[in-house]
Amino acid sequence: MAIISDDKYFNNSDNDKKKSDTNKSPMVKAVSIEYDRTFENTIRPKNFDDYIGQTSLKETLKISIEAAKLRNSPMDHLLFYGPPGLGKTTLAGVIAEQMGVEMKITSAPSLERPRDIIGILMSLKGGEILFIDEIHRLNKIAEEILYPAMEDFSLDMTTGKSQTVKTLRIPLPKFTLIGATTKAGELSGPLRDRFGIIYRLQFYSTEELTQVIKRTAKILDIQITEEGAKSIAKRSRGTPRIANRLTKRVSDFALIKYNGIISGKVADSSLDVLKIDEYGLDTTDRALLNLIIEKYDGGPVGIETIAAALSEDVRTLEDICEPYLLQSGLLQRTPRGRKVSPEAYRYLGKKLDNLQQNLF
Ligand code: ADE
């Protein structure tokens, strides 16, 4: 299976990221995004045996794939949603590999003009997979072009002006659309309804991440002990993308500062230097919790206010920081803004005063 990526997609995504990074170190950031992507692609599992975790989803997918093969037809359109880094793109690639078909990858922000989505739909061959990342960001026109494409495998084009307008129906080969989103709630109802299969990807357990890390260490050709893998796993926020990045960072420490083996001690001290604590929280996460406690009495406070105070953009906080803080119960979302939980006070070693105790 060859994965063909739409270059515009990567350029656009990078541009988005670069915009928010310009007041940091744009060159270093741009290089590291590129480097991370190459690294991620190298270690991406290609089949279900190598893909760790998401067990029940994997079982259901295997059945859908076998059934599609038996019927000699493409699989139903699929929607994967959940926080970033849980393996949505990877899973789509595994499906393409198992189906023995090509996958074209694009992202909603790069499908700005009608001809972008029309071009990519018309380039598909029978049975192929079209992967659209960040599908909640699709504009209305692109969505409307997609409806007949998904439902009837056809493109409805209009030609001529006012009285002479004609609708032309162009058949497309049958294909499977795999959409991925971190924000399923922002998808329009009609688009959501056109997916036959909708799945939420789950955070990974420490045991699952330990396996992911051992597999990655093997690919990186670095020795790792069970304790070393577990130490990294515990600090990876339930997310394989983070586990893989940390494994790479710790392997650098092991090679340069230690004896080349990632033991529990090597992992712990390297991650301490990287300021990633035993819950996997980094300096931004801790700054966010501290800010709400110190400046806003524990909250609630609006996300825009938090973002301005931390010099971060709202999307980074919502997409990267918050999912895990919410999942771990340190942060709560209320209609009036974000609020920390009593656990966050304990975690940061802070005392709740009497008034706050009554509020919780
Ligand atoms: N790398 C990223 N996601 C993975 C997964 N689910 N299994 C193994 N390696 C991975």
In words, what does this structure look like?
With 360 residues, the chain is of the alpha/beta class. The relative contact order is 0.10. It has 16 helices and twelve strands. Mean pLDDT is 89; it is low at 6-26. The protein has a six-stranded parallel sheet. A two-stranded antiparallel sheet has the order 5-6. The longest helix is centred in the first third of the chain and has 18 residues, at 26-43. The chain is globular and about 70 Å long. The site of adenine (ADE) has 12 residues, from α8 and α10. Adenine binds at residues 43, 45, 50-53, 87, 90, 212, 215, 240, 244.
Give a brief description:
This protein is α/β, with parallel strands linked by helices and 360 residues long. It has helices at 7-21, 26-43, 55-71, 88-99, 114-122, 140-152, 189-193, 206-220, 226-234, 240-257, 264-273, 283-296, 303-310, 314-327, 342-347, 354-359; strands at residues 3-5, 78-81, 103-107, 129-133, 154-159, 166-171, 176-181, 197-200, 223-224, 261-262, 331-334, 337-340.
Q: In DSSP terms, counting alpha (H) and pi (I) runs of 4 or more, how many helices? A: 16
Q: How far is it from the N-terminal to the C-terminal residue, by CA?
A: 53 Å
Fraction of residues in β-strands: 5-15%
Stretches with pLDDT under 50, minimum 5 residues: 6-26
Order of strands, main sheet, comes to 1-3-4-7-2-8
Classification by helices and strands: alpha/beta
Q: Please state the overall shape, judged from the principal axes of the Cα atoms.
A: globular
Topology order in helix (H) and strand (E) letters: EHHHEHEHEHEEEHEHEHHEHHHHEEHH
Characterize the biggest β-sheet.
Answer: 6 strands, parallel
Small-molecule binders: adenine
